[in-house]
Amino acid sequence: MTDRRDMLKLAGGGLLAGGLSGVGASAAWTAPAPSSPVPAWAKGFDGQRKADLGDGRFLNPIMAGDHPDPSILKDGADYYMTFSTFDSYPGLVIWHSRDLVNWRPIGPALTKNIGSVWAPELCKHKGRYYLYIPTKGPNTSWVIWADKIEGPWSEPIDLGLPNHIDPGHAVGEDGSRWLFLSGGDRVRLSGDGLSRIGEPEHVYDPWRFPADWVVEGFAPEGPKITRRGDYYYMITAVGGTAGPPTGHMVIAARSKSIHGPWENCPANPLVRTRSAAEKWWSRGHATLVEGPAGDWWSVYHGFENGYWTLGRQALLDPIEWTDDGWFRMKGGDLSRPIAKPKGGTIAGPHGMALSDDFTTLALGAKWNFFKPAADERSRARVKDGALVLAARGKAPVDSSPLLLIAGDQAYRFECDIEIAPGGTAGLILFYDERLYCGLGFDGERFVTHQYGIERARPANPHGTRMRMRVTNDRHIVTYDTSGDGGKTWGRFDRGMEVSGYHHNVRGGFLMLRPGLYSAGQGEARFRNFTFRALD
Q: What DSSP character marks residue 17?
């Protein structure tokens, strides 16, 4: 099969050529190298791609699919990481690794809907774990804490920060605790980290790119503080998170005191997509982390060329410290395999199976509700190998569907579905409540969803029970149904193309996620859910 990525690439970066001039080697535009075959990823659960190639190398992403704004914590030999989870709950899943490449989920830290979660900060101070959580709607920041990374985590405490996002925790040379914030600001924390002292103050003017670069906007955000040797290093994202592929970038500054002054790195920007022909677009929001053997790495996010629909994926880039006390990123455009961090061990197989026999209710690490009400958890239970999901609303728009994160360019998922009288249920590809597609059914008719609206209601020959299959093959979506449990299939006569179901069309910084919904009346039963990544 011809890889549709080649069809979707912008030719040679020419679209962007007028805005890629700059000062110095770090800012100059370079023509894309001659194309060469993209190496194949290794395969994990359900055939899902994984980074570890098994030969001492890895191929980005380390976390495929929507894992934006990574916050990473080194805790002895262990590494923990979490990501923005926006309107999905349970949220803020904690992931664990001992080699920075293979990651396993521990579980969600946040179960109460406090708003849309943007760019959290995971840290540890004096033996206690903290998560600082900015939200939209309400616009504020929260903190939760735990004495063990597995939890239990505390109830959220509102810090009352309505005008800032992206907190980065830091401890000063005098022991003071701080949150560095978007826009070059910071606010002091109490000693226990559970309240703020005073109001935010401006402490840093981020490096600005040349005025003719093609970016989304200045938007300084995601400050992350790392102390090494005599310096505090502040890593910041500028240029806008999405929009033009060349916008988002990584810059650095340093100071010998947490109180400044901050000196901008002369090699800024340290990471930037320079051509639309590159593999990874809009790269930014970086954190430095020491590897198992004492070498250094950076974790940040980026969009995959041609696959905005997969959201911002987590990338790992090697760091080299230079004689002048600065550092540089060595991974280039991250399209090729890289030697794994040395000294680590593999704590377990990477990722998790998305297939589900519903012997248990895997809420959090696997399934998430979208914009759940306070009582949403009570809708779902497992019984006799089935997910029993009480109906809510009339369609996916108001039913708070259950969703997965799938990180492959092509995949197929299918499930046995049984509905009660008056019920409607089905399988969907869901961006948000106004942009989704899928196929549902009631006792007499199918319900087709496209562009976030109902499109048609053809006759349903299967009645109240059928097996349904959805295939997303590089944005080409087809549906199949079966009345005999999957022994024979019939192609449903409505296919779709969904490459436009993403942030630059709809906003929201989300991804197109496979899932299921139950609407109308009664309960729907879902059995034998299988997921398979496709080559």
A: G
* Euclidean distance between CA atoms 175 and 170, whole angstroms: 9
Flag whether pLDDT at 335 surpasses 80: yes
Predicted confidence at residue 193, as pLDDT, reads 98
pLDDT for 39 equals 74
Cα 151 from Cα 106, distance rounded (Å): 10
Q: Which two tokens stand for residue 72?
A: 């990473």
Q: Could you tell me if residue 226 is left (phi over 0), alpha (psi between -120 and 50 degrees) or otherwise beta?
A: beta
Tokens 């899932």 -> residue:
515
Per-residue pLDDT, 52: 98
Q: What is the largest CA-CA distance in the chain?
A: 73
Q: Give just the sign of the alpha carbon dihedral 14, 18, 19, 22.
A: positive
Half-sphere CA count of 406, side-chain side, radius 13 A: 30
Cα(310)–Cα(412) distance, integer angstroms: 15
For the record, the structure tokens of 80 come out as: 């923990």
pLDDT tens profile 83-104 = 999 999 999 999 999 999 999 9
Q: What is the tens place of the pLDDT at every residue in 233-274?
A: 999 999 999 999 999 999 999 999 999 999 999 999 999 999
> What distance in Å separates the CA atoms of residue 419 and residue 465, rounded to the nearest whole number?
7
Report how far apart, in Å, the C-alpha atoms of 19 and of each of 14, 246, 273, 274, 349 are. 10, 9, 12, 10, 43
The Cα–Cα gap between 368 and 362 comes to 9
Q: What is the mean pLDDT of the chain?
A: 93
Nearest-angstrom CA–CA distance, 333 and 30 = 12
The answer to whether 292 touches 343, Cβ cutoff 8 Å, is: yes
Could you tell me which of 135, 156, 160 has the C-alpha nearest to residue 146?
156
pLDDT of 10 > 50? The answer is no
Question: What distance in Å separates the CA atoms of residue 277 and residue 435, rounded to the nearest whole number?
Answer: 28
How far is Cα 423 from Cα 31, in angstroms, rounded to an integer? 56
SS3 of residue 319 by DSSP: strand
Whether the pLDDT of residue 19 is over 80: the answer is: no
Strands of 229-268, DSSP E: 231-238, 249-255, 263-264
Length of the chain: 535
Bond into 138 cis (ω within 30): yes
Q: Residue 248 in 3-state DSSP?
A: coil
Q: What is the pLDDT of residue 129?
A: 98
Neighbours of 453 (CB within 10 A): 13
Tell me the domains of the chain and their CATH numbers. Answer: 4-23+50-339 (2.115.10.20), 368-533 (2.60.120.200)
- pLDDT one-digit tens code per residue, 287-315: 999 999 999 999 999 999 999 999 999 99
Predicted local confidence at residue 36, as pLDDT:
52
